[in-house]
Design brief:
Helix content is about 15%, strand content about 45%. The protein is an alpha+beta fold. The protein has one domain (about 5-300). The model is unreliable at about 1-15, about 25-35 and about 85-90 (pLDDT under 50). This is Lipoprotein. It comes from Chitinophaga eiseniae.
């Protein structure tokens, strides 16, 4: 944590751990048993789950960046001290990114913020970003009735091109219920490589279910636990699986602890090429064990 962080900047930093909860697949899956996929359909099913991993993490990161921008520009709550329109501020490493509030003074909404990462901006977590994201705040970010919309412009994260429209709504944050929010992604597109381009859409709701601090919410996140529900879909625009969509739907709410890098509980249904599979994250232990069931075959996998 850098010394220039105010209390609001501490909140912005802490939210970085919250957005990870929107990721359906915590890490790339590796089949680790002797019952590894024995046909192409099974292999393809595992491939699309891996691609969903990447896609979900990329758009969850946009929530992070938007939350930080809201706090740093004073757009997080009613009455917060707002930046002067036209001014810029550094949100992370010296010199990048720059944040510019384009319009709006006082309690006049909407307000627009441009986050410019330049050609290469390295954050303190080792993530490179480039390009811009344009954010429209229709009200204070932590206001259940407000909607915040993010559009990308030549934006890349660790060299991966990302585009789309991400709407964040229903964001609440208090010392009773903790944080809750919903994200809706449309027109999502990710260039995973020169040979693989996917279209991605999703709808996810995240709710804090444990660890709420009655004194200062989110200031002590180590015991926080989140529940995630929703759905997502992938269509291949380019690659070996063109024309075959894959959908992902929570069967049982996924449980994500702040102090655990893995989703530790819950079930996710995968439908791909007329095959339905269920990914079971386990019984709540913080480990990288899970199972995937496709048809009559169940395979143990490592997260």
């Amino acid at each position: 944590m850098k010394s220039y962080f105010s209390t609001n900047r501490v909140l912005a930093w802490t939210i970085t751990g919250v957005a990870v909860a929107t990721v359906f697949f915590a890490c790339k899956k590796q089949v680790t048993t002797d019952t590894a996929p024995n046909n192409q359909t099974d292999n393809n099913t595992l491939t699309v789950t891996q691609h969903e991993t990447v896609a979900a993490s990329m758009y969850a990161d946009l929530f992070d960046e938007t939350a930080k921008a809201a706090v740093l520009q004073g757009l997080d709550k009613a009455g917060a001290r707002q930046a002067t329109p036209g001014s810029t501020a550094n949100a992370d490493a010296p010199g990048c990114p720059s944040l510019e509030l384009l319009n709006g003074t006082g309690n006049t909404w909407p307000k627009e913020v441009i986050v410019d990462y330049g050609t290469s901006c390295l954050d303190r977590f080792g993530v490179y970003r480039s390009g811009k994201i344009n954010i429209i705040f229709n009200g204070p970010f932590f206001n259940a009735g407000a909607t915040t919309v993010i559009e990308t412009s030549t934006y890349k994260r660790n060299g991966i091109a990302i585009s789309g429209r991400l709407a964040i709504s229903g964001v609440t944050y208090d010392n009773v219920k903790g944080i809750q929010y919903t994200t809706d992604l449309t027109r999502g597109k990710i260039g995973l490589s020169d040979s693989v381009i996917i279209d991605y859409i999703s709808h996810k709701t995240v709710k804090q279910i444990a660890g709420v601090d009655p004194v200062g919410a989110l200031l002590n996140p180590s015991d926080d636990v989140y529940s995630i529900e929703g759905n997502a879909s992938i269509t291949y625009e380019k690659g070996p699986l063109v024309g075959v969509p894959a959908t992902f739907t929570t069967v049982e709410a996924l449980i994500k602890r702040w102090d655990c890098q893995y989703i530790s509980k819950g079930k996710l249904q995968i439908e791909f090429n007329k095959i339905t599979g269920v990914l079971d994250y386990g019984d709540g232990k913080c480990d990288n064990d899970a199972t995937i069931t496709v048809g009559d075959k169940t395979k143990a996998i490592k997260l």
